[in-house]
Structure formats: structure tokens, C-alpha cells
Amino acid sequence: MSRIAYIDGVYQPLNIPGILVEDRGYQFADGVYEVCAIRGGKLLDEARHLDRLDYSLAALDMPPPMSRPALQQVMRETLRRNRVREGILYMQVSRGVAPREHMFNPELKPVLVITARPIAAERRTQIMKKGISVVSVPDQRWARCDIKSISLLPNVLARQSARNAKVQEAWQIDGQGMVTEGAATNAWIVDAKDVLRTRPATHEILNGIVRQVLLDCVADLGLKFEEKPFSLNEALAAKECFSTASTMSVFPVIEIDGQIIGAGKPGDVAKKLSDAYDAVEA
Ligand SMILES: Cc1ncc(COP(=O)(O)O)c(C=O)c1O
Questions:
Q1: Which domains does the chain have, with CATH numbers?
Q2: What are phi and psi of 210, to 5 degrees?
Q3: Residue 99 CA, ligand 1 centroid: distance in Å
Q4: CB atoms within 10 A of CB 267
Q5: pLDDT(93) > 90
Q6: What separation in Å is there between the alpha carbon of 103 and the centre of ligand 1?
């Protein structure tokens, strides 16, 4: 079955050319995106993703491509046409098509593209069982990482560094030696005093949807918690480290830069939070 994408008003096979050369998303990475998890044919945390999409659009002075109900309808139709039960839905809004010049007309019509693809549910189970390894890389991004912009070159290079090191994720380190976040995940530790820590959601990181859902669970789970930056050294000395993102929810980190973290296997807090996330989304 060929995959079907929604491209600016038309559902069409993904491999048919459809994007115009002067789309500002293509020429300037002038656009935003969202990735929602699909489980059992359902979109997880749909309202939170749509709220964050609105936030990103407003931050870049871009109008929404259509009303929220219309967008939800297109999201569901893309799922249906691709028959995805477990996987991810990708939504991208670019500023629109115009002769190439840096400044823009705020009234340009945005171009919406939506795709969906399956990811085997067993991959999540495997990651929770085995954990992942991480390398650290300098954070080379701009000053508005809270906007989910399609301009992802530093994240792409960070992930490629991970691949070159034969590991799964790269944690980015700011000029003060503090961990900001992963290439496409938020970063967490359980520190030497058993305090669960993640960086506050300032302009330096993306406020992940899984991060938001887990923060709502922390108090009920009776965990000691602080929204406070942590250094690479604190991560290396932590009892547990893990990453979070909609693609897999929780990724226990068992190794950073070749050094074993804690007991070298997925920790109890990561498991507890993964279970709590599954319970919220059930
Ligand atoms: C840079 C970055 N941080 C964090 C996340 C996690 O966000 P979410 O939980 O919404 O998937 C992502 C997800 O793509 C990301 O790209």
C-alpha cells in the first residue's frame, strides 16, 4: 500500500512531487511542526499538541492553516487512509509560497502537510527493557528552542553524531556545561540525592508533551522533584538518566559518552514514569 500524505488540500501518494520550489519551508526552513504518537489507532495528547502548534505559529507570526476542528478532521483522515494503528503522525505548517526574499508577508497562505507512519509497538518495549546509550554534543542551536521549528540542522547533526558513535541519542550541552535536552527528546536524571530533575521549560528547550504529561504525574507518584538544570557531570554521576519524547514516551539511558549510568540498566523511576504515562494514555 502506498503511503498517503495530506499536502495543501489534497490527499495524494507520498512519492508524487507536490511541494513548490518557492515554498518558504523548503527554502528557509520557515515553518513549524508537530509529531503525535498513535496508539491503538488513537492520537495521544491531541489537544496539547494542537496547543503547542498554536504557540509555535503565534511565536512566528503565522496564521493557523485552518480551524482546529478542520485540522483534527484532516489528521484523522490521514490516519485512516494510511491505516496506522501504532506509529506517529507528522504535521508541518510552512509559511507559504512566495518569491524568495527573506522578509515575509504575514498574510501568506500557510502550506499544511500531514503524514502518518507505523512504528512497531515492540520497539517501545525493547527500549524500556534495554535502555539506550547517549553521547554528549555542544548545543549549537538558536535562542528560541521552545518554538517547534522545522529548522533542525543542529538537531540533525547532533543525532548524526550519535549514529556515528553507534548510540541512539545525543544530549546537548550548553556553554555552562549544563544539559539542555536531547536532539529530539527531553533529558531527565534522578540525582545522587534521589531527586528527579529536568530543565525548566524556558526558551532553551522544547516543552515536550511527554514531559508535560509526566510532570502532572510526579506528585501522585510521591517522587521528589525539581525543575532545575543539571550538568553533564551530574548526569554521569546520577542514579538514573532518561529521555522522553512522543515517539517512544520514556527512553532509559544506561550509558553516556561510554560511561555506565547507575546500575547500567533501566531504572525504577523511568519504569514508574513509563507506566504512569501508559495509564494516562490508556
Ligand atoms: C528538541 C526536542 N526536545 C524534546 C522533544 C520531545 O517532545 P515531545 O514530548 O513533545 O515529543 C522533541 C520531540 O521531537 C524535540 O525535538
A1: 4-119 (3.30.470.10), 124-281 (3.20.10.10)
A2: -65, -40
A3: 32
A4: 22
A5: yes
A6: 28
